[in-house]
Structures are given as C-alpha cells and as structure tokens.
Amino acid sequence: MSILPIVTYDDPVLMKPGTPVHPEHPGLQDLIDDMFETMYHANGVGLAAPQVGHSLRMFVVDADVITEEEENGEKHGPGVFINPEIEILEDDYWDAEEGCLSIPDVRENVTRPFRIHIRYYDRDFQWCEAEHEGWYARVLQHEYDHIKGVLFIDYLGSFRKRLIRGKLEEIRKGAVKTEYPLLSRKPATGQR
130: number of CA atoms within 13 Å, CB side? Predict the structure, then answer.
C-alpha cells in the first residue's frame, strides 16, 4: 500500500464530476487500499478518488472516531462507496463545522440534511442500500460532493469566501504545512 499525495482545492480534478467505476477498472483494489492508507495517514474520516487525482465516482470512509459520541453509538467501520447515489429523506437540516484534506487549515459551518438514503456498490461490487443520519450522513454527503465536483467551500456565502481568500491563496502557492503529502497545481515561476 502507498500513501498518495492529496490534491489541493485548485486542482481541476476536484472541479468536475467523476466518471463511473466498472468492476474491471485496472488496479481498483490497489487504489482502494491506497486511499484508505492515505486517509488514515492524514487523520481523515473520508477520502474521495478525485482527492488523489482520480476522476472516479468512488470514496472511502471510516468515521467511527466522530460518530461514537452520537446517541446510538453505532459503529460503521471502514466503507467503500462506488458509484453512489444519495437521496435526502427529510427537511431536517443542521449546521456543523467541516474541513477537508484538500483544503487544509480551513474549517467552516455547512448546512446539510440530517438523514439520507444511500445506494452504492461496495468494494466487491455488491449492491448496497442504507439509511444514515447525523455525523455519518454528513461525512457521506461531503465525500459524495467530491465525486460531483463540489467542495464544501462552494456552500459558503460571498462574505465567508472573502474571509478565507488569503488561506486559499496560501494553499494554492503551496505555502501550507501538513503531515501528509499535498499535490498543488501552482503555476511555474514567471507564469500565471
């Protein structure tokens, strides 16, 4: 298994919807293993394929560390979500602070639905369906956004975006320090 560099918010791969994954996709199981290894190394709870430079409709999640404090204390363990589709189950929305491995040192409140229904293939291409709520549902929605070309900062109003503009510029320039490798598409010297 390998630790892959995580692309930063300015990488074009994060701005476009991913393509469907097929069971015969070359190196799929190795990519899944590498994504888990990368996520754990970065102390993340989710990681989408576009975040490691692969424009695919797939993400991995292991959010037990943040869901253990919920009332039901349900454990989900590591999960692989291939070609997922999410349906909102009710009009109950809630705000919570989110961050992203592709946008280090930026945390902002995002409003999301509390309950969802998700349909997807697991790593063995077995069809799965489940309902989730709370933090686990939030993590799934955050990663699902990645495979649609959406970042959590896209939900921010213009005022909040102006406030984080300086931090985003530091990330774009590669002037941010992380415990995990980053891949920034900063312009070459003398070019814009």
Answer: 14
Please name the residue ranges forming H helices in 8-133.
28-41, 64-67
List the domains of the chain with CATH numbers: 6-183 (3.90.45.10)
Coil/strand/helix, residue 81: strand
Mean pLDDT value of segment 10-23? 96
Instruction: Tell me how many helices (H) and strands (E) the chain has.
Output: 4, 9
Active-site residue set: 143
* Alpha carbon distance 142, 107 (integer Å): 13
Cα radius of gyration rounded to whole Å, the chain: 16
CA 152/CA 141 separation, integer angstroms: 10
Question: What local confidence, expressed as pLDDT, does residue 141 receive?
Answer: 98
Read off the pLDDT of residues 39-72 as tens digits, 9 standing for 90 and up.
Answer: 999 999 999 999 999 999 999 999 988 766 665 6
- Rounded CA separation 96/53 (Å): 27
What is the bridge-based pairing of β-strands 182-183 and 103-113? unpaired
Name the burial class of residue 171, with classes exposed (0-12), middle (13-18) and buried (19+) by CB atoms within 10 angstroms of its CB. Answer: buried
